[in-house]
């Protein structure tokens, strides 16, 4: 409905200046834990992976922990050295998903143009909502108040005329704040910021730009577009326009509907040593992604495996399948084949990730190889769908692959 209002609110056939909000939940995982257990608000706390299972890094922290310069992704050991009294809480991902849905439900009360950008961030196009709810700044204030009072966490909001600057605004001032970046003030706010703050400028890109003397977003905006394109390709041109406030991408509620890949990874309680251990890990991960693909009604055409050794050195390898699949047995076979071709099975493995890529709909027409046993594949699909139904009804541990019985890997 609000999109319809946006469409008709134009003058002389031209679109109105857009008003985009970027809403970012502050310290989301930690904020949810504090909302569930208010006593955590009074102590420095962080959400961290299990040290026993070797996921010992900081995932999120509250405001008191930030005062000790505790950083997301640093080890719990390092964080505890900075703050010995730091309280570590294990993550509860199901609850975070539930809170994310509640937050986005509130956003949808003010516009139907909501695009998720991860579990804790969303863009809102409120151009067509201002006649009903006030200016972008006023809508931001309403959202901050409702989420603080109804859900018990806080958000920071950037308000601008495009998505890129709106995101810069939500990062500019935290927590529980609104930052307006307009056509009149954007050079004063945006240009002095480090180029690393710009959307999609990663560490390596920032280093490459730095070697050209481009340290700030203003430096990037004043650079030669042709030189950037030559250096970074299409990405260089895109970043040039982002820095100059020339992003015109729409807020797309369906941007995340298309499944591009389905993956799952695990750091094991101990290093995997030998083919039997590796098969145990691969079987578990392949079952997980195969079930998710069947749930989404898709198949993969490529299997990708990421291997990380005890020194945290990673390799990524992928191979095309003979035919699309969402069957755990076939994904396991291909993943093991990739590992045998690219890894010394005697070397220890700390972490594995299996990803199904090249996603297509499960009903898509594909050419069957003369050598494929279509009947066998159909029987296997029927079996795995039956296992899905049993696990949905009786729990995921109702049926367990024999490969992972009585393992000591943390599966």
Can you write the helix and strand succession as a string?
A: HEHEEHHEHEEHHEHEHHHHHEHEEHEEH
User: How many structural domains?
Assistant: 3
Overall pLDDT level: 87
Terminal residue distance: 47 Å
| Approximate strand percentage | 15-25%
Reported for the largest beta sheet, the result is: 5 strands, mixed
The CATH class of the largest domain turns out to be Alpha Beta
Give the CATH topology of the largest domain.
Alpha-Beta Plaits
Q: With helices defined by DSSP (H or I, 4 residues minimum), what is the helix count?
A: 16
**Which regions have little confidence, pLDDT < 50, spanning 5+ residues?**
4-14, 365-374
Key structural traits:
16 helices, 411 residues, DNA polymerase, domain 1, Alpha-Beta Plaits, 3 domains, five-stranded antiparallel sheet, alpha+beta
What does this molecule look like?
With 411 residues, the chain is α+β, with helices and mostly antiparallel strands. The protein has 3 domains: 1-185, Alpha-Beta Plaits (2-Layer Sandwich), CATH 3.30.70; 191-243, DNA polymerase, domain 1 (Orthogonal Bundle); 262-402, Dna Ligase, domain 1. Helices cover 40% and strands 19% of the residues. It is built from 16 helices and 13 strands. The protein has helices at 2-8, 28-36, 63-66, 76-82, 93-107, 130-133, 136-150, 163-172, 186-190, 203-211, 217-221, 225-232, 234-243, 275-296, 328-342, 374-394; strands spanning 20-25, 45-48, 58-61, 87-89, 114-116, 121-125, 155-160, 178-181, 262-272, 298-308, 314-325, 349-357, 360-361. The longest helix has 22 residues, at 275-296. It is globular and about 60 Å long. The protein starts with a helix and ends in a 17-residue tail after the last helix.
């Amino acid at each position: 409905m609000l999109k319809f209002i946006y469409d008709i609110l134009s003058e002389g056939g031209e679109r109105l200046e857009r008003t985009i909000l970027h809403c970012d939940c502050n310290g989301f995982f930690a904020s949810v834990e504090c909302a569930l257990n208010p006593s955590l608000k009074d102590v420095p706390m962080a959400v961290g992976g299990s040290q026993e299972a070797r996921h010992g890094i900081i995932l999120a922290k509250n405001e008191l922990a930030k005062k000790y310069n505790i950083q997301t992704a640093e080890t719990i050991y390092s964080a505890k050295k900075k703050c010995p009294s730091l309280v570590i809480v294990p993550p509860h991902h199901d609850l975070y998903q539930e809170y994310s849905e509640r937050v986005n439900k509130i956003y949808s009360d003010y516009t139907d143009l909501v695009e998720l950008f991860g579990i804790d961030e969303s863009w809102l196009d409120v151009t067509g909502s201002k006649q009903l709810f006030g200016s972008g700044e006023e809508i931001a204030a309403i959202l901050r108040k409702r989420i603080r009072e109804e859900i018990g966490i806080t958000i920071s909001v950037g308000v601008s005329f495009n998505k890129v600057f709106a995101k810069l605004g939500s990062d500019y001032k935290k927590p529980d704040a609104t930052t307006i970046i307009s056509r009149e003030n954007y050079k004063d706010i945006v240009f002095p910021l480090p180029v690393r703050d710009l959307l999609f400028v990663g560490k390596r890109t920032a280093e490459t730009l730095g070697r050209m003397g481009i340290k700030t977003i203003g430096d990037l905006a004043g650079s030669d577009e042709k030189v950037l394109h030559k250096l970074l390709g299409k990405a260089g041109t895109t970043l040039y326009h982002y820095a100059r406030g020339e992003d015109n991408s729409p807020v797309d509620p369906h941007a995340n509907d298309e499944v591009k890949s389905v993956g799952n990874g695990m750091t094991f309680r101990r290093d995997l040593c030998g083919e039997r251990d590796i098969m145990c890990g691969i079987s578990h991960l392949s079952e997980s992604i195969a079930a998710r693909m069947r749930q989404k009604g898709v198949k993969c055409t490529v299997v990708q495996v990421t291997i990380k050794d005890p020194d945290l050195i990673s390799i990524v390898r992928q191979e095309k399948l003979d035919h699309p699949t969402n069957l755990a047995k076939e994904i396991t076979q291909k993943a093991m084949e990739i590992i045998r071709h690219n890894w010394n099975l005697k070397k220890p493995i700390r972490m594995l990730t299996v990803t199904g890529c090249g996603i297509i709909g499960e009903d898509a027409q594909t050419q069957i190889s003369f050598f494929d046993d279509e009947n066998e594949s159909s029987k296997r699909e029927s079996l795995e769908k039956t296992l899905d139904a049993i696990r949905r009804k009786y729990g995921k541990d109702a049926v367990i692959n024999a490969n992972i019985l009585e393992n000591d890997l943390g599966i």
